[in-house]
Amino acid sequence: MNSAESTPSSTTSAPVIKEGSTPSSRIALSYDGGIMIVDGREMKLIKSLPQEGFLRLNPSGDNRHITVADGSSYKILDAGSWEQPHGDHSHLYTAEPTLSSLEFAADHTGHVITHHQKTAMFADGTGTFEVYNPAKLTGENQRTVEQLKTSKVTLPQPHHGFAIPLGDDHYLVAQGSEEKRTGAAVVDQHGKKLAENNQCPGVHGEAVAQDETVTVGCEDGVLIYRDGTFTKIDNPEDPYSRSGNMAGSEKSEIVLADYKTDPDAELERPEQFALINTAEKTRTKVQLPDGVSYTFRSLARGPQGEALLLTTDGKLRYFDQHTGKELGSVDLMGPWEESETWQDPRPAIWVTGEIAYITDPFTKKLMAVSLKNLHKDQAEKFAELELPETPNEISGVSGKTMR
Prior knowledge:
By secondary structure, the chain is mostly beta strands. The chain has a domain at 166-287: YVTN repeat-like/Quinoprotein amine dehydrogenase (Methylamine Dehydrogenase, Chain H). Helix content is 0%, strand content 47%. It has a five-stranded antiparallel sheet, with no helix packed on it. The protein has a four-stranded antiparallel sheet with strand order 5-4-3-36, with no helix packed on it. Strand 12 (109-115) and strand 13 form a beta hairpin. The two termini are 28 Å apart.
């Protein structure tokens, strides 16, 4: 393990900090040329931050900052909304969103994952990942720090991978090379293997579930890691059944995943999804109506663990996480089709508490949907915002301290 410190790339004047009385979520939306920041409570555009490149957005782990990946580096964006605990109460603050001076070089940026009070940023081009404590992103003056101590772990070969922080300075990582990905392993802070399973061809996608359980997607099923042991789960009726995108919840034993069955497809538009029960070690396929599909930006979870899918008939559909029964849906936009170019904009979803924020790139809109009482089929769109640019990726912060 190596230690390092980020180097400030630039200096900017510090934004004014204001105290408020109500938590204010901030939504970050990438577009071709930068990032738009929206106030989620008032549904208004606060600021656009110019930035070149195809931008990927991920939470930084502290519910205040967002990690912006541009292919060669990870930059830290201060979304400008946070909670400061103070004894038996807390104070709520906002400031103008700022792309901070914190920047971490990375050859082919990839997955950014937070768990166990650590955030790991993977570099596909080197097979390394850099780790930091997200609580250290904010200094004592309540501003984003200009330098941050990190540690780096190096895996045997470069590949499109990920690293999930576990306890005891251990990490669950993807295994493979640039030519072939084979499985997953648990390594220590020096990269030494402690456990592994290489029965996961084409490994891609991961999620953390209840009781420190992790799922990993394979081309023929999933791996479940729990209590130091890997278990392989497949569906015999579908020898090829790829689950490469997942949405988990640390409050639920169920993981929502995609489910693809055509190994020869240039772009498969699946009409079914999977519910993985990590306690019972099963994967159940759930069928959608004929002609209805979804994409890798379509998956999310509701406040009670419900499975949420943005589907190509223009709906937000929600399902019981245990049975797969469809509980209801909300009409949000016209029918759409996934582009064959994965970087192209398509509807995307980000959930905080009982609200889902959903993009419609075809009309340049951001919509807010109430997720209260999904089991009574009472979800509804209650606000929308017209945007000046076509939104692509979405992430955000709730304005509350991570607990």
